[in-house]
Write a structure and sequence with these properties.
Helix content of chain B: 40-55%
Shape of chain A: elongated
Order of helices and strands of chain A: HHHHHHHHHEHEE
Distance between the termini of chain A: 27 Å
Structural class of chain B: alpha+beta
Radius of gyration of chain A: 18 Å
CATH topology of the largest domain in chain B: Four Helix Bundle (Hemerythrin (Met), subunit A)
Oligomer: heterodimer
Strand content of chain A: under 5%
Number of helices of chain A: 10
Largest sheet of chain A: 3 strands, antiparallel
Largest interface: A-B, 60 and 76 residues
Low-confidence stretches of chain B: 178-186
Number of strands of chain B: 13
Largest sheet of chain B: 13 strands, mixed
CATH architecture of the largest domain in chain B: Up-down Bundle
Number of strands of chain A: 3
Structural class of chain A: mainly alpha
Order of helices and strands of chain B: HHHHHHEEEEHEEEEHHEEEEE
Number of domains of chain A: 2
CATH architecture of the largest domain in chain A: Orthogonal Bundle
CATH superfamily of the largest domain in chain A: Cell wall hydrolase SleB, domain 1
Chain lengths: 219, 442
């Protein structure tokens, strides 16, 4: 599937990549079911939760959710609403999200995870720029034509190599992913970036730098 | 006491030695198990890479076969089938290539060839379907593709046979040529043909220049003055960004607001500042009206006239509303500007006019040949059309078509169907998706 197309419709279609969580749905203390299991499993994978993945939202899950929310700059109310669920990469039921929304939400979430792993500590514009580089590659004939294909290309991003791409994204990286998908490209079409303080690739260092944002040189 | 120590210490020491021996033996067994798991994992990776190399070679060979058949096929239907095979085979080859952990620099050339081969085949297929034929330029390009596939498959077979395909166990810089990978030895990679066509991944598309820029090149000082005039004080000059649409960039002290003005003509290309709230969900009619009015005021102030709202997304406390230009009652979807409005203050907080600046130009919009009711009849009888209007839509990156835009529903889903207003061809179908964050299309 070529998920990002080039016509102007793509810009309308790009909006479809932003399908978010159903408004109004939430999961909290006392809730039970598969959604709670999904939340527990993710919290456990990320080290916030050590209890059983039993689908029962008890005090252990409550404490873990609050801890996750504090760490990710969310209101620590212990309730998994649309914003917290988005930060976890989950879609809650109870709304009108279509069947395809899961897939497209996943693309936003995957891009956000990469931005979070690659751009931690970078200015917001630099985070959007990382997302834009991924999308510029998707549109380029020289790279895979899907977001996942570009992100998981072997050796392409340190955050994939060192596993940081598997961590929950920060709130600003989710927004940066959406802004990049909505067309903001602070790099003017760049396909590469590197940190000049740590980069060793002769080929990369030989490329003319178009601009610098934060710690990254874009080319 | 001495007697107690005489017996107790050796017993305790023996016990500790026994426990240590048991623990050590367990750890050694565990280490063996992990080594086996690691070996198995490495074996799986190597096998997977070997499989991808074989499949890549197979897909390139299938492309070669399809191209050969295409050259001797007399009927258009046969040609279309062969071209669609090439589209599929090139996509498969790309997928397998992307799983081989080789140098990205080398993979870029091959990926570009495979991508453009499929893209070009799809373009030719559409050309034949719309009644066109293959011209001399097409035949030359197909011959070049065939020759490249033959050379490429030979090269892949040789590398597989010599064991020089990357298999994931090597350590090298993915952005440099891997030493000892065979990339420098043996036959070199084939020359890939330049494919001249109008498609999403063509070189011609990559070279497209902005058509909507007016005015001459400005200096940074002039840009700073224009930034103050349009968006107020507080922006500091950051620098110049090159690219197809070079810009002067500004930001505020807190790093919350960014502004880019085109070097040529000082058009506002991109403006972004933070929202004051976190309001989510689809607004009511009254709120939507206020949001659109605020966005329209900004567009008017910046000189974007005759813009009509089409759809909106709501996230991060803002409403991102898409506007397209309307001329003579025709919506021009390529002339797109997006405006973000703060949902708490109803003040504009963002603008993205890049698409408009790339595509806007004086157009000669043709008169429709079909009537709206004729267009409705050309659409599927399953679709109950609820509204019909005229729109200029992009067919390829470089061409547009005047279409009737039919909004209708079928089976509980909403659709937009575009029927060519000159030929009656069905050009595009979109599914309308409404959710908690607005309306979008798939």
């Amino acid at each position: 599937m070529r998920s990002v197309k080039r016509t102007a419709f793509a810009l309308l279609l790009a909006a479809a990549l932003l399908l978010p969580l159903a408004a109004g749905a939430s999961v909290g203390y006392g809730s039970r079911g598969e959604e709670v299991k999904s939340i527990q499993q993710r919290l456990k994978n990320w080290g916030y939760y050590s209890g059983a993945v039993d689908g029962v939202f008890g005090s252990g899950t409550l404490a873990a959710v609050k801890s996750f929310q504090r760490k990710n700059g969310l209101a620590a109310d212990g309730i998994v609403g649309p914003r917290t669920a988005a930060a976890m990469g989950l879609t809650l039921s109870g709304g009108s999200a279509p069947a395809s929304a899961g897939t497209t939400t996943n693309e936003v979430y995957l891009l956000a995870r990469l931005i979070s792993g690659e751009g931690r500590g970078e200015p917001y514009k630099g985070q959007v720029a990382i997302g834009a580089v991924v999308l510029n590659r998707v549109r380029s004939a020289q790279f895979p034509n899907t977001i996942a294909g570009v992100i998981y290309q072997r050796g392409a991003f340190d955050a994939v190599s060192d596993g940081q791409v598997n961590l929950a994204p920060t709130e600003s990286s989710v927004r940066a992913a959406r802004d990049a998908l909505n067309g903001w490209d602070p790099t003017g079409g760049c396909l590469f970036y590197y940190n000049p303080a740590t980069a060793t690739s002769r080929w990369m260092l030989s490329r003319p730098v178009k601009l610098r944002i934060g710690n990254h040189s874009f080319c | 006491m001495k007697r107690f120590l005489l017996y107790t210490v050796p017993v305790l020491a023996s016990f500790a030695a026994l426990v240590g021996a048991v623990w050590g033996r367990g750890q050694a067994a565990r280490a063996d198990e992990l080594a086996l798991v690691a070996d198995e994992y490495v074996g799986l990776c190597v096998d997977s890479c070997a499989r991808c190399a074989e499949e890549l070679s197979g897909s390139v060979d299938e492309m070669r076969v399809s191209l050969s058949k295409l050259r001797v096929t007399a009927s258009d239907s046969g040609r279309i089938l062969a071209l669609e095979d090439i589209v599929r085979e090139s996509a498969e080859a790309q997928a397998f290539l992307s799983r081989i952990p080789g140098s990205q620099v080398k993979a870029m050339e091959l990926t570009a060839f495979l991508t453009r081969a499929g893209d070009y085949a799809r373009t030719l297929s559409k050309k034949l379907l719309s009644g066109g034929g293959l011209d001399e330029e097409d035949i030359r390009a197909l011959d070049g593709m065939l020759s490249s596939c033959e050379s490429l498959n030979g090269l892949l077979c040789e590398r597989i046979a010599s064991g020089s395909m990357p298999c994931g166990t090597e350590e090298f810089d993915y952005y440099d040529l891997p030493e000892g990978s065979g990339a420098e030895d043996g036959p070199s990679e084939p020359e890939y043909p330049t494919l001249i066509y109008d498609g999403p991944f063509s070189e011609a598309t990559e070279r497209l220049e902005p058509r909507g820029l007016t005015g001459g090149e400005a200096f940074p000082e002039e840009a700073a003055a224009e930034a103050r005039r349009l968006f107020g004080e507080g922006f500091s000059y950051e620098g110049r960004t090159e690219g197809k649409l070079p810009t002067y960039d500004f930001s505020d002290e807190e790093g919350r607001a960014y502004l880019s003005l085109s070097v040529r003509g000082l058009h506002a290309v991109r403006w972004m500042s933070g929202s004051s709230g976190e309001k989510e969900g689809v607004p009511g009619e009254a709120e939507y009206g206020r949001l659109v009015s605020a966005a329209e005021e900004l567009l008017e102030r910046l000189g974007y006239d005759a813009m009509r709202p089409t759809c909106a997304q709501y996230y991060g406390g803002g409403a991102l509303i898409s506007f397209v230009r309307e001329e003579e009652g025709v919506l021009i979807y390529n002339d797109l500007v997006k405006v973000t409005v703060d949902r708490e203050t109803f003040e504009p907080i963002g603008l993205d006019a890049r698409n408009y600046l790339f595509s806007h130009t004086e157009r000669e919009i043709p008169e429709p040949v079909l009537t709206p009711s004729e267009a409705e009849r050309r659409a599927s009888p399953e679709l109950s059309a609820e509204s019909v209007g005229l729109a200029l839509i992009p067919l390829t990156p470089q061409t547009e078509a005047l279409c009737y835009e039919l909004h209708g529903s079928f089976g509980g889903s909403d659709y937009v169907v575009f029927v060519n207003a000159l030929t009656g061809e069905e050009e595009q179908i979109l599914i309308v998706v409404s959710d908690g964050n607005g309306v979008s299309t798939l």
